[in-house]
Amino acid sequence: MTVQRDKRGESRDLEINPIFSREPVRVPRYALPDQGMEPDTAYQVVHDELMLDGNARQNLATFVSTWAEPQARRLMAECAEKNMIDKDEYPQTAELENRCVHMLARLWHAEDARHATGCSTTGSSEAAMLGGLALKRRWQHKRRAEGRPADRPNLVMGINVQICWEKFADYFEVEPRYVPMEGDRYHLTPDKAVELCDENTIGVVAVLGSTFDGSYEPVSGIAAALDDLESRTGLDIPVHVDGASGGMIAPFLDPDLTWDFRLPRVASINTSGHKYGLVMPGVGWALWRDRDALPDDLVFHVNYLGGDMPTFALNFSRPGAQVVAQYYNFLRLGFDGYRRVQRTCRDVATRLAAEIAGLGPFELITDGGELPVFAFRMRDGIDTFSVFDVSAALRERGWLVPAYTFPEHRTDLAALRVVVRNGFSHDLADLLLEDLRRALPRLREQHGPHRDADDAGGFAHGAETKNPRRPGRH
After folding, report:
1. What distance in Å separates the CA atoms of residue 345 and residue 183, rounded to the nearest whole number?
2. Which residue stretches belong to region Disordered (predicted)?
3. Which of 150, 229, 303, 348 could be disulfide-bonded to 143 (CB atoms 3.0-4.6 Å)?
4. Threshold 0.70, pTM exceeds
């Protein structure tokens, strides 16, 4: 090829990246290719493999949002490259984060929402760990000020807590004190919480929406029991509310339920913006009732890019897209819009639960009347198939409905759980019911269960069995 040159001898042609032939292409799976390929080819390779994933809209296992409006997706795409931590470079994104904190503080009845203390996180798990760290540090400061040892902290919670709390206890050297399930009691109760508290207890975790069955733990009752404990013993033990899901349900559907900063004993609350906050993954929120609840020595003041930046997080760089989407949803829906969305979810959940209970083989554990989540089990006398057979049969039609056993002391109880989220309509609920009805005659003809807990898969989403005897460091 002849290359045209100008009078100075420089090329007049454009130099572009080489174009590779699309076929044949051999793509290594576990090693970096020696050479690149066309964007369309790379896209098609990845796209084709992802077809093997489940359909997110049919995923009734996850609590995470699987639907968003096009405008929210557009904003997220516009902000994907913005680093949330660079508050000097992206001051308006930081301002939107601050506004979201103030909105949540008002929603959860903070005494002075104008001076709310809180932050965004990558999800409710990180937010829960930040809450736990603040509890531990406050306890350590108090013990040291009294001249007492501060090396054996413990945290009281129900065995039904999400796995992040087991991780927190292990990572940050806190003894987890789990209240086991017993009989028909599937979560923490006031009397059982108090029984495990002592002078080394940094706090009690109350869950507003158990991942096992969707039920609320009695936060106000737990707080009252701890008030009584303090009056009798002098032990002042705070409460952290894990509102990963319920923190964005109860304010809109259960306004008379007292669970938040209206209770003086509630020191901190976490929630997941990408669950019933209606944002695509991943964003969470952690809030403290006041500055005293978050020890200042946990907050880092970083001289970053020419400015002072206070930060309290386990992660550093992360996209601002989800925070922007959270603010969009708050503006777009307002209080009434969130109320209508969550009411629809609960209506779908309670109707679907009632329909499933009416099929015959199933018995409800919960009915979706708190979180839009319900769990059900096999009725006594049904011995030709198991909940694990039902889960597998529904999966044949694309439905992801987890089956799992409950924790220690109730490992005899196996259940299915359905999480109803925004985007799972009455129409989709009818399609699920049709597929379940279609599967039942075949399941009834079996001579016995074909599957058990070993076939359950790994998609219980929070209903994992904890190890109450995990070796500690104390």
Report:
1. 29
2. 445-474
3. 150
4. yes
Q: Which domains does the chain have, with CATH numbers?
A: 74-329 (3.40.640.10), 343-455 (3.90.1150.160)
**Tokens 């508050």 — which residue?**
87
Q: How many CA atoms are closer than 13 Å to the CA of 38, on its beta-carbon side?
A: 10
Q: Which two tokens stand for residue 321?
A: 């897209």
Question: Could you give the CA distance from residue 154 to residue 178 in angstroms, rounded to a whole number?
Answer: 10
